[in-house]
């Protein structure tokens, strides 16, 4: 297929420079302020939020395969634990927790005043049912998160004991994510649970039009009710980012996720932006099936692909300069990130890339498929990558498709060699590692197994404190750089734009917007 990306990328780079110059000349005219609005909240308001993906049309925390689905789940499902803005584990449905002296069990004390949306009581039996469902459901995508949980004992109605097959210092953080989202046991057999979730969170789903809108209403029986929060939420699914941003300016939406390359435009128009997360673990990357295509099983070939990528050009030309080029999945300064990264790890070097292909037995290149969802930011990056790969002799079958088909092809049917997107991050590095780098990981469909990675991952889980765990994860991250297990492009930010009446939209460590406490002023 013909490539026009060189012209596009050059034009985008020029546009980025021009935009920067324009902003410099207009300094002070557009605030882009993230200051929270004053005034009384309207407890009967409806929040209309624009989202750029439909979450795969599956909102079951156990079986969902879309990495962006938590944004739809957080209003509905409380978790056993939560993470504060610094990424520290704090209580939620579990009021306290205690590891045994040998680290082989974790005992949780649960809240007593919680009911699910269908009236079912939340208790230790509910926790046991949820953990066992996550471990045994044939379609579960969170099995790796719960791999160290061997059995679950109900001690009393408000106490549950998780028995482990190995120490896991990350388990409370893991239970602050999808693995800790509590589904009503009564609803687990509902045939429509994937579209009509039943949790114990502050909002319940009242209607779901797949691919169009998910409607939520405040759950008045919530144990920690914020009476000033909006009464209703409408999650509007709009794939076109320009339409989403324009809808905020015309008050058709109250808030929306936007792309990194829209930040300058939003600021120049004076549109408010949510404060970025103190720590964001989101990363733009190329996911690889490192077994399906024989070429991609060779680390020299994967290194050649990495060397072909113009990370700086993609960042500046296509991502608004808001994505820090990187060769690892963890952002600079994050406690799990390797500090031993070669200076040339993010440099483009097509000459060396061609040499590596020759050494690997592919002097004339090879064929591979590369997919992206049918959203402009992702398809533009995919086109740029395809052209950069072709410069070193690789023939790329570019596949631009809708999210459900893409994820099915890559994760389930395993018929796609690679796709580019954002990993939104995770509250704990163990989840990133288990999802992307372990042979059982959902985003390691080729089941590549590098023993050193598996060993360091186990050590990272077993560490009793962050300092001990950091040593293991930093070493693991270095191995993934050396082995080119997937191809990180840049550490990303996932911004949110909003009107002047919206307040209370935080961004989490995992770069997910949590709408449970959003208020709209009168």
TrEMBL record:
Residues 1-24 form the signal peptide. Keywords: Signal. Residues 88-440 form the Solute-binding protein family domain. Gene3D superfamilies: Dipeptide-binding Protein, Domain 1, Dipeptide-binding Protein, Domain 3, Periplasmic binding protein-like II. GO terms for cellular component: ATP-binding cassette (ABC) transporter complex; periplasmic space. It is found in: Cell membrane. SUPFAM superfamilies: Periplasmic binding protein-like II (SSF53850). It is a lipid-anchor. The keyword Signal applies. InterPro entries: Peptide/Ni-bd, SBP_5, SBP_5_CS, SBP_5_dom. One of its GO terms (molecular function) is peptide transmembrane transporter activity. The keyword Signal applies. One of its GO terms (biological process) is peptide transport. Belongs to the bacterial solute-binding protein 5 family. This is Peptide/nickel transport system substrate-binding protein. The lineage of its organism: Bacteria, Bacillati, Actinomycetota, Actinomycetes, Geodermatophilales.
């Amino acid at each position: 297929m013909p490539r026009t990306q060189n012209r596009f990328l050059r034009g985008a780079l020029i546009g980025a420079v021009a935009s920067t110059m324009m902003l410099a000349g207009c300094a002070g005219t557009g605030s882009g302020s993230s200051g929270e609005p004053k005034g009384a909240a309207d407890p009967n308001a409806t929040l209309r939020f624009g989202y750029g993906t439909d979450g795969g049309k599956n909102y079951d925390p156990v079986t969902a395969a879309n990495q962006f689905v938590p944004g739809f789940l957080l209003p509905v499902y409380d978790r056993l634990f939560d993470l504060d803005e610094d990424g520290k584990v704090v209580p939620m449905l579990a009021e306290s927790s205690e590891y045994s002296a040998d680290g082989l069990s974790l005992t949780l004390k649960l809240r007593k005043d919680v009911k699910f949306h269908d009236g079912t009581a939340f208790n230790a039996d509910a926790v046991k049912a949820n953990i066992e469902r996550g471990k045994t459901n044939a379609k579960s995508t969170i099995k790796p998160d719960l791999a160290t949980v061997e059995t679950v004992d109900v001690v009393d109605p408000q106490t549950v004991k998780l028995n482990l097959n190995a120490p896991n210092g990350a388990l409370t953080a893991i239970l602050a994510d999808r693995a800790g989202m509590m589904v009503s046991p009564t609803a687990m057999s509902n045939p429509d649970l994937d579209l009509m979730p039943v949790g114990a969170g502050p909002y319940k789903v009242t209607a779901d039009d797949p691919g169009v809108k998910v409607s939520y209403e405040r759950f008045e029986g919530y144990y920690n009710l914020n009476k000033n929060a909006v009464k209703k939420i409408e999650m509007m699914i709009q794939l076109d980012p320009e339409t989403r941003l324009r809808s905020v300016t015309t008050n058709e939406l109250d808030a929306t996720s936007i792309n990194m390359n829209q930040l300058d435009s939003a600021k120049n128009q004076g549109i408010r932006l949510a404060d970025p997360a103190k720590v964001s673990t989101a990363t733009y990357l190329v996911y690889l099936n490192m077994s399906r295509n024989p070429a991609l099983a060779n680390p020299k070939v994967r290194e050649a692909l990495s060397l072909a990528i113009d990370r700086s050009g993609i960042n500046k030309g296509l991502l608004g300069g808001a994505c820090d080029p990187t060769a690892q999945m963890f952002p600079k300064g994050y406690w799990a990130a390797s500090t031993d990264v070669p200076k040339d790890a993010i440099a483009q070097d097509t000459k060396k890339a061609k040499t590596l292909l020759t050494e690997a037995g592919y002097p004339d290149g090879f064929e591979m498929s590369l997919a992206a969802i049918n959203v402009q930011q992702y398809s533009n990056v995919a086109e740029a990558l395809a052209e950069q790969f072709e410069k070193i002799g690789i023939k790329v079958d570019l596949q631009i498709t809708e999210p459900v088909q893409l994820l099915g092809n890559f994760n389930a049917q395993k018929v796609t060699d690679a796709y580019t997107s954002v990993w939104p991050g995770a509250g704990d590095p163990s989840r990133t590692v288990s999802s992307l780098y372990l042979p059982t990981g959902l985003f390691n469909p080729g089941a590549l197994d590098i023993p050193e990675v598996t060993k360091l991952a186990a050590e990272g889980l077993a560490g009793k404190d962050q300092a001990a765990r950091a040593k293991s994860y930093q070493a693991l991250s270095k191995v993934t750089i050396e082995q080119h297990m997937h191809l990180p492009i840049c550490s990303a930010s996932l911004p949110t734009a909003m009107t002047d009446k919206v307040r209370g939209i935080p961004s989490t460590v995992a770069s997910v917007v949590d709408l449970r406490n959003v208020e709209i002023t009168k």
